[in-house]
Every structure is written in C-alpha cells, then in structure tokens.
Amino acid sequence: MKSAVETLNPTRVRLSIEVPFEELKDSLDAAYKKINQQVTVKGFRKGKIPARVIDQRFGRGAVLEEAVNDALPKFYTEAVNEGELNVLGQPEVDITELKDGELLAFTAEVDVRPEIEIPDYSGIEVTVDALEVTDEEVEKAVEQLRERFASTNPVERAAAEGDVVTIDLEAKVDGEVLEDGVAAGVSYTIGSGELLDGIDEAVTGLEAGGEATFTSQLKGGSAEGKDAEVTVKVTAVAARELPELDDDFAQMASEFDTLEELKADSRKRLETTKQYDQATQAQERVLEELLKLAEVPIPEKLLADEVQTRKHNLEHHQLGQMGLDLEKYLEIQGKTLEEFENETSEQAVKGIKTQFILDELVNKEKLNVNQEELTEHLMRRAASSGMSPDQFAQAVVEGGQVPMLVGEVARGKALAVVVEAAKVVDTNGEIVNLEDDEDEAAETAEAATEAKADDAKAEEKNEA
Questions:
Q1: Element spanning 279, H or E
Q2: What angle is formed at CA 249 by the lines to CA 247 and CA 252, rounded to 5 degrees?
Q3: What is the pLDDT of residues 433-453, one digit of tens each?
Q4: Residues 110/91, Cβ–Cβ less than 8 Å
Q5: For residue 45, is pLDDT > 80?
Q6: Which stretches does the entry tag as region Disordered (predicted)?
C-alpha cells in the first residue's frame, strides 16, 4: 500500500491511497464467504458455492463491492497511522480507481487536530472577588436554618403572609373545568410564590371556609400557557412559629452547645464555600485569558457537529424534562432564534478551543493521570450525577467512557499548571494563593468543553 497526505487547510487533509490488488485477497475471500452464507444455488450446498459460480450468477462487481467495503477501513487506518495524523470524526471517502486484478485507489478527506503553539501564559493576571464573609451573611445562614425548624399551629383567624394554608383548587378554561385542573388538600405557604400567580392575593385575608376566584396563566398541564379562572377554597390556616435564637436552638439544630458556636461554624462554612467559588472564578478567568492568547483553527465539520449536538441535547434532554420546546424556551429567555444559534456556536467554539489547548498542554507537560486521581474524579462525578460510585463506575465502563474521564482529569491538571503560573489578585488588591485542586480545575475545564446534557457523546466525537 502507498499513501500520501495533502494538507487542505490547518484542520483538514486529503489522503491518497493506492492498494495493489493482491493486498485485497483476504477481503475478497471474506466477501465470497459472506455471499456464500447469504445465497442459495441449486446443485450446491449452502456455503459451498464456487467463486466462479458466484461471479456468474451474481456478478463479480457485487463481490468487489463487498470486498472494498471490508478493506477500506483497514487501509484508511494504516494510512492515518503512517501519516501520524490525529484525525477527528469520520472521513469522506471517494474511490478514484478500481481495476479488477490490478489496483484499488481512493481518497479520504478528514478533519485533523490543528497544530497549536502554546502561548507564554506566565504573564496572565486576573482579578477575583475578595474572600469576605459579612455579619449579615452569617445572620442569613442562621435564619435559614431557623426556618427549617419552624413549626405550624392551627389558628382561627384570617390568613396572612407567611401562614401555611390548606386549600382546594379548581381551574376552568372557557367555562369548562379541566380534567387536570382540580386539586384538594394542597399545602401552601403564602408569599412563597410556588403556585399560581395571583394566589397570594386571593387567599390573604380568608379564614377557613373562605373562597375566592382569580385569573392566572397556567404554568403546566393540558392547558399550559392559557388564562384560567381559578377558584380557591381555604380549608385550614396555620401560623408558622420560629424557634427562639438562643443556646437551646443551637443544641436542637446542631452539634454545638451555644448560639455563638453555631454562628462561628456558619461563618466557617461560608468561608469554605467562598474559597471554592473564588478558586473556580480564578480558573474560569485564567482559562478565558489563555484562550485569548492562543490561535486555534476550528475544524468546520467538527464545529457543525458540536453545535448540532448542543442543540439536540437542549431540546431533547433538558427542555424535554421541563416540558418546554425550543420556541417556549426562547420566549422565556427573551432571545431570538438567531441570537440562540450565535450563542450556541460561540459556546461550541470555546469548548473545542479549550479541549485542544489543554490537550496540547497535557502532551507538552507530559502530564499523566494515576489511579488515585481517576478514582477521586469518578467519586465527584458520581456524587454530582446522583448515582453511587459503583453505579457510576459501571456505567462509565459499559459506555466505554473511561478515556473520557481520564481526559477530564488530565485537562484539569493542565489548567492547574496555568493557574499556578498566573497572578491572581482579589478586588482588594491582595494576592490570592490558591490551593492546588486539580479535580476542581477538571470540573472547570469540563464545564467549558461539554455539551450540557450529553457530554459523553460530544467528547467521543471530539476524540474520534
């Protein structure tokens, strides 16, 4: 076999491949064998039909077609390896010559990873939010905990904001009661905004047994988006009572003996959360600066596939779960279809650039992923997916996605190298010393590269 590589542009090549006919022998034998198992010729046992009879009855062309289809992937792969090409996606193959007994010649055009020169990133400087926890934030955290321990007691008075009412609902559209528009015994906290628009005003001031009617646009169900006449009847009113903020509350709601100890722990937890947010912010901003420095040609077909994948995932996974279609989603977002498509394309470009640059850094810095790092990343991914580590690991192995996870960790390590070299200051002008959290960096890099609802398929496409 002979092959030659022609560079069409920085992200696409054309392979020209010539195969002497004798190298097709195995594929021809396999073609005859396959046809033998599929056809019947009177006078011959199945599987024992001579090649000359198959040629006479079904045509030599059918055999050659089967043999070529079998051989092309093998010779294409050999040419790719010989040319040391890092290909992306499937090739477009064109058979240019097929001479029976002499020669098979074909071309294959395919996208390739562009050669990328890693820029000098030592001068990157970014600003992040200062690590400050205010007394107001601590008080809010404690108040939220207090809300969780609130109790309710029935009262014989008109309902007011903050009360918990038990209600029956009936919704009509065009004077007809909806089949799915009736509910009884619904518990609702006035002011929570968790039900229909207008319900807070309707039930406020009603006592048990009171009834009101209001108009509201339905948020779901068979008449979603339509205006309905809703009748609400209050069957019970209960007041929420919050526990006193004292040492007894601290002992009831936590492992601490005093309220001051509880507040100190809340402050510490808020600081930890803000440290995480600060580190993530630093990684995201350093990555943005790195992307600005690097010139990365984007393969057109890969970009088109990535955009399509992202749109498909949004429409058929995320929106489908929320009971929305793209048109309704765009209406809620206040975006035109053109704005959405432009935004999706920009996100796809950023994801591809991020992966290409960080993968190149992995190679340049010779970064490896050990079993412990992979296991830690798997545990985090399992936790975020709501699966047990064993279930997640099984799904990863069965889906052939172990290389994908290895790539995520490796890219995280590459991003951590860049962050370590960057100067990070907070809004007070203080130098920020970030802990070396490569798994956290992996999540940042993954967020930049993935197509939200189906990142495994997108990753496989990029690494095909």
A1: helix 259-293
A2: 115
A3: 876 556 667 777 777 776 533
A4: yes
A5: no
A6: 432-464
